[in-house]
Amino acid sequence: MSTLARRLQAANDHEIAFIEAEHRWLRRARRKQLLPVDEWSLCVVQAGRGFGKTLVGSNWVRRCAGLYPGCVIHVIAPTYGDLRGVVFGGPSGLINTIPAPMILSINNSIFEIRLVNGTIIKGFSAETPDRLRGPQCHFTWGDEAAAWGTNAESVISNIDLSTRLFYTTQAGRRVQPQRLYTTTPRPLEWLKNMIERRSTRVVSGTTMENRANLAEAFFNELAQYEGTQIYRQEVLGELLTVGEAAIIKRSWLRVWPNDRPLPWFDFVYVSLDTAFTEATFDKKDFEPDFTACTVWGVFPEAKRWNMMMLECWHEQIGFPELIARAKREMKARYGRRRDLLFKPVVGDPQYHEQVKTPDLLIIEDKGAGISLRQTLQYEGIDSWPYNPGKADKLSRLHAISHIAAAGRIWLPESKVMRGEPRSWCDPFLKEVTQYAGPGTTRNDDFVDSFSQAARYFADRWLTSGVTTKSEMKTDTLEMMVELGEDQALYDAMRQGIDEVRNPYD
User: Fold this and answer.
1) What is the edge-to-edge ordering of all strands in the sheet holding 291-301?
2) For 175-196, what is the HEC assignment?
3) Same CATH fold assignment for domains 3-235 and 250-501
4) 3-state secondary structure 254-298
């Protein structure tokens, strides 16, 4: 009798079931679906939909569970629903992949599978990353990691810190901890950085590779997407660059030259995204989510209306400070600080420059924005409520993307880097020109502030006529003469002159 035959004869039922399952998988799996168990520490399987990624993950977990009795394995899914319906109970999930003789118990309430050999498989949702802070494990499988949303980086850092146990075999060999991520790729900075690590094993695949197991009608539907970014990402499994996938292209945003005087603003308005709500308040850290603010000046250029960003900021502030900040924004003055001479009252416009306070405050009509508007109204400050309806952030950006594509959005130029915006624009640019859906940027508060500002601009100015710049200035000055208040206006402008905000400063 051979050594193998003697071992099989002495094997328990759960061990035989494991060997049979492994044999079936080796015969069924395609080459890319077979992952070595102990030749890497981090592996990313990025492939199109229908490739069989979940089956790769569940069989890898089954193999680790059978080869290393008594080990601890963590499994993470985007939501608890995905954990229940895909990773644990789905057709390619763990319960259908691990043979019944290997399973000792299944606890669906806490997502835990205990095996006869002592191995424990625990499930977690990316919705609650803090649950991963305490437990430790030998192996981790994260399914559809690119769909983990804004919690993704927090979940991954917790995985890195909790997957810390090495396994010692009966022969005394140490097996190092391993992390496997299976996902359809998305243009995420953290995913790009993970894949580009020198130590990362990367497996790429397309939907087409699993054609034999998918309906032909499905592939007929896919034909309409050929050549699109969706097809490259969802079918071919390509990791698109952030710039390719973003709705607002950075190249669309124009830069107003630093050596050119600021335009004459017909209208200045503040767009406030009040992210501070009970739902976004971290009860553990006692910190609110970010509130984002952008200030825009509307002006005529090339016989059409344009908008220039004059200021932007985002901070973690509570409601009392939010009230004070909103009041301060409405008292700010924007323009160039030079000689604010309105004399000669009638003459060449180049001899005077404009300093203007905001005409309007826009606040999204939800959450803390409702309370803020009511409080400000009580103190005599009116605001305009923006109601996006049921449109999500992505839909809002799509709705106003044509304004940016037409070259109507401007940023002030840097004093140091010619052709580049001022450095204070960087946080805004990082969010707005990289956002391609939930989770694609660490924060997305500027996305809301920008989209509601652009929506207001589109509704009011996009199709309206433009009075030429010289005509506008002359008309304004002549009106001041007729009112006889040129000196009063001049004196008013002189008050608080140090508070004038120039986007070039």
Assistant:
1) 254-256, 409-412, 304-315, 291-301, 267-273, 360-364, 384-386
2) ECCEEEEEECCCCCHHHHHHHC
3) no
4) EEECCCCCCCCCCEEEEEEECCCCHHHCECCCCECCCEEEEEEEE
254: Cα within 13 Å, side-chain hemisphere:
14
110 secondary structure, DSSP code: T
**Nearest CA-CA partner of 500 in 353, 342, 384:** 353
Closest CA to 340 of 327, 356, 325: 356
pLDDT of residue 308: 94
Under a CB-based contact definition with an 8 Å cutoff, are residues 125 and 76 in contact? yes
Average pLDDT, whole number, for the chain? 82
Across 12-21, 270-279, 308-317, 410-419, least confident range: 270-279
Give me the CATH topology for the region 250-501: Nucleotidyltransferase; domain 5 (3.30.420)
For 466, residues 6+ apart whose C-beta sits below 8 A from its C-beta are 300, 303, 304, 305
Rounded (10°) CA dihedral 335, 338, 343, 348: -70
pLDDT confidence of 8, banded at 50, 70, 90? low
Beta bridge partners of 409: 307
- 419 conformational bin, left if phi > 0, alpha if psi -120 to 50, beta if neither: left
User: Dihedral of CA 487/492/498/504: which sign?
Assistant: negative
Taking the C-alpha atoms of 399, 401, 404 and 409 in order, what is their torsion angle to the nearest 10 degrees?
40
Compute the distance between CA of residue 212 and CA of residue 52 in angstroms, rounded to an integer: 12
> d(Cα 484, Cα 463) in Å, to the nearest integer?
34
**CATH number corresponding to 3-235:** 3.40.50.300
What's the average model confidence in pLDDT over 388-411?
Answer: 88
Contact between 78 and 125 under an 8 Å Cβ cutoff? The reply is yes
Q: Helix (H, G, I), strand (E, B), or coil: what is residue 43? A: strand
Contact 475, 334 (CB under 8 A): no
**Peptide bond before 344: cis, by omega within 30 degrees of 0?**
yes
Task: Identify any residues that bridge with 386 across adjacent strands, giving them in sequence order.
Answer: 364
pLDDT in tens, 107-141: 989 999 999 999 999 999 999 999 999 899 999 99
Alpha helices in 70-124 (DSSP H): 80-82, 94-97
Q: How far apart are the first and last CA of the chain?
A: 87
3-state secondary structure of 109: coil
Amino acid letter, residue 168:
T
DSSP H/E element including 334:
strand 333-335
By C-alpha distance, which of 401, 367, 124 is closest to 249?
A: 401
Handedness of CA 410, 415, 420, 422 (dihedral sign): negative
- CA 29 to the chain's CA centroid: 34
Domain ranges in the chain are 3-235, 250-501
Under 8 Å between Cβ of 494 and 340: yes
